[in-house]
Structures are given as C-alpha cells and as structure tokens.
Amino acid sequence: MLASKSLGIDFRQSEKQTLFGFLALYVLLTVIIISVFSFIYFGLQKDLMLQQKKSTLQKYSKELIEELKKLHVNFDKTQIYPRSDKFDSAIFDNEKKLIFSTTQSKLRLDKILYLEDGVIHLVNIPESYYLGARYIIVKIIDDEVWLEQTKKKITVFVVITFLFMLGIGYILLRLFLKPMRDAITLLDEFIKDTTHELNTPVSTIVANIEMIDKSSLDEKLLKKINRIDIGAKTVSNIYQDLTYLTLGNEIISNNEDIHVEQLVLERVEYFTSLALAKKIKISTNIIEKTFLHVDKFKISKLLDNLLSNAIKYNKVGGEIIVNVDKRVFSVEDSGIGIAKDDISKIKERYKRFNKSSGGFGIGLSIVSSIAKEYNLNIDITSKENIGTKVSVSW
Length: 394
Fold this sequence. Notes:
This protein is α+β, with helices and mostly antiparallel strands.
C-alpha cells in the first residue's frame, strides 16, 4: 500500500513525537517502579544480613556480659572493664549515660540491631545491673560481601527489567498507533483518488474559460463567467496544493533558469480575477530583473500560495504589492496580519490562526518545504490589522 507523502510525512513526524513522548513517560514510570523494587530488595537483603550477623553479635554480647559480671564481683581487685579484639563495645547506665566504650563513634540506643557507617551494632539489655550497666552495645565491621552481591543482582535486575519493559512499551505503543496509522493511510488514498478525479474536469473548466472571448459577452453573462472562473481557479489551486502534498517527494525536479519577474507577472495575471472578487488591487514593482535555477512548477506553487494567502487574508478593497529585486522577491498585503507570537508557528502544516477566512493551513507549509529544497530564505514580518510581508531571498 502506498504511503502518502502529505499526511503520511506529517503522521510519521507526529508518530515519532508521540512515540518519544510516550516512551519518555513510560521510561520515567519504569525507572520509578524499578527503583522502588530495588530499594525494597536492598532493604530485605540488608535485614537478612543483619539477622545472619545477629547470632554472632549475641554471642559476643553474652561474652561481654559474663566478663562484666565477673568484674562486678571482683571490682575491688580488677577495676578494668572487659574488652575484646573481635569486637568493639560500649556500656551505658539506666539514664543512657556512657560508662565505658572502646570506640569514639556516636552510638544509638533507640534500635536493637542496625547498620550504620559500615558497622553492625547490637544493643542488649542484661538481666542484672552489673556495675550500673543497663545497655550493652557490641559492634563489628561489616565485610560488605552482601552489599557487593546485592549490587550485582540489582544491576542485572535493572538492566533486564528495563530492556524488557522498554520492549513491551514500544510494542504497546505501536499497537495503539496502528488504528490511527491505518486511518491516515486510508485518508491519504482517498485524497489521492479524489485529486486524480478532479484533475480532468478542473483543467477542462479553466482551459475553456480562458478560451472564451469575454469582450463579446454582455455584462450580466460576463459576471457569471467571472464567478465560474474564480471558482474554477480556486478549486484548481486547492487541487494543485493537494497534488503537491500527496506527491511532493515523488515529483522529479526539472530545474532550469527561471526569470522571476516573468513568472511573477504570469501568476499575478492568473490571480487577478480572484483579487477583483474582493476588490483587491495587485501591483507589481520590478526593481531589478533576477532569475532562479529551480523547477518551474514548484516555484510557481510557492508564488501561488503567497498570492493566494495575500488575497484570502486581505481586507475587501485592500492592496497587494509584489516586489522583485536582485536575489529577492516579496508579497506584501494590507490584510488582517499575524500576531507576533504566532509568526514562528505559521509554517506548521494545518496551523490556522484565523478560522473565518477558510483554507486548510497548508499554504505556508508548502512554501516552507519548497524553500527548504532550494535553500531559499523565508522572512515574514506582520502587524495585526495592518498587513503581512513575506520575502523570499537566495
């Protein structure tokens, strides 16, 4: 099935933006979920390690209490608090005041078993107050073997889970976008078929109207013919826009040296009847002759859209000035203008800022795409209720 170069291109860009937006949000949520599970797993592993070390610390604590008991009985002879090379210890009284300690670090009594600064602490309460001791703390250095193993497991879990969730998210997004993609493809095919069917009747109407000798017609019939001419040219312009949007990337460019001033005069003459319908005066100002090495159809399409927009968004009885100078031409109107904040967005396809003036919002998008192909510079200056000037330079 052929993919349209009009809606198809826009849809692919929109699809890409949607894809990245969804994946960014999906990745953020995935990271949060993985982080929560990793944190929980880390906590469980830490608690498991502490429980495994608890028996060792309880054994050391029991040894310390036994030594303290002996000291309590023989205090008059020894007067040296028990200590060991296997662990550090500290003794606190009932008011949590330090009696003796083999370490300078700050100790806590609000937890029974805890890990702090790489040291495992166990707080024990003897059955008897030997030498006024109420709290016994024993502590050993954590070898951190569990920590390294936990880090490795969490890293593997994070990588595998992240890649798996990313793949699932991508598949889900593609499935969600499929109905829209199918609808866009169907719409593109419809546009292609419609524009193809419009070609012959529109071309026939325009050609036959141009062959009519209007000087021999009475005024009443001439007005009717002019209305038909305006309607046919309007439809023809829409048809050409749709054709370009549909087949733009498939149209082979036949570049040649185009005299810009001659092309401007031709296109102005073509749009004269459309301008007269709104009592708009079109004047041309050829300052200096210039030429472009481009495809005539494409540059005509660019000019047509500038002139069409200048008529469409102009005031009744307004004016359009087309200037041609060395390496630049411009179309200036006395129309409704564009808000300053909207000028940067005006080249976006289907973007319209005035709903009352018709159109599909594709004119300046076509202008922009043709200008991009030939490295032409588009400059738009506008003031609301005063007018707009679009300059094309190279």
